[in-house]
Write a structure and sequence with these properties.
Blueprint (H helix, E strand, L loop, with lengths): L4 H15 L1 H4 L6 H16 L1 E9 L5 E7 L3 H6 L8 H9 L3 E3 L21 E8 L2 E11 L7 H22 L1
Length: about 170
């Protein structure tokens, strides 16, 4: 059984976008640049206002955190990255994709640090490395206030696989 046309298109578009990463982060050995470029790419290909990526250790402690879409001033206003409570904690605990259309009114819509931007919609995917969740990538507020769709999820899952390969090769 083959994937639906929209999903195949999402996969193709994501692979093409990933092929551009060496131009954005030409020093593939600079892990931080590659991961930041991937976080920026997540925001771009899902048409999201914000994106973030957390890389965690074997004990679920955040080792690396990357954001896209915040100004320098907004970034400085955040005291700490999200600590893995609420929807991100669920994602990192059970390793399942989360898709939320109304973060404020969602039962797990909490755990964000002070001064965190307001969010309406969210899509988050786990980063699996050797059978263990080693972080997550999430995007919020799709352009036009639309909910995230299956194609967005496909794009994010492909990016998560890319990040997993990078983490396995350079971080672990």
């Amino acid at each position: 059984m083959s994937a639906a046309p929209g999903i195949r298109d999402a996969e193709y578009e994501t692979l093409v976008a990933l092929s551009r990463l060496p131009r954005v982060a030409p020093d593939r050995k600079n892990l931080l640049d590659v991961l930041q470029a991937t976080c920026d790419l997540a925001r771009e290909i899902t048409e999201a206002r914000y994106a973030a990526m957390a890389i965690t250790d074997d004990h679920d402690r955040t080792e690396g955190f990357f954001v896209s879409g915040l100004s320098e001033e907004e970034l400085k206003g955040l005291k700490t990255p999200p600590q893995g409570h609420g929807p991100l904690g669920d994602l990192r605990y059970d390793g399942r994709v989360i898709r939320i259309d109304d973060v404020k009114n969602h039962p797990t819509g909490f755990g964000f640090p002070p001064r965190h931007p307001e969010m309406q919609t969210m899509l988050g995917v786990p980063i699996w490395v050797d059978g263990q969740v080693r972080g997550s990538i999430y995007v919020t507020d799709k352009r036009g206030s639309e909910p995230f769709e299956d194609g967005d999820e496909t794009r994010m899952l492909l990016l998560a696989r890319h990040v997993a390969a990078v983490v396995k090769e350079h971080w672990a």
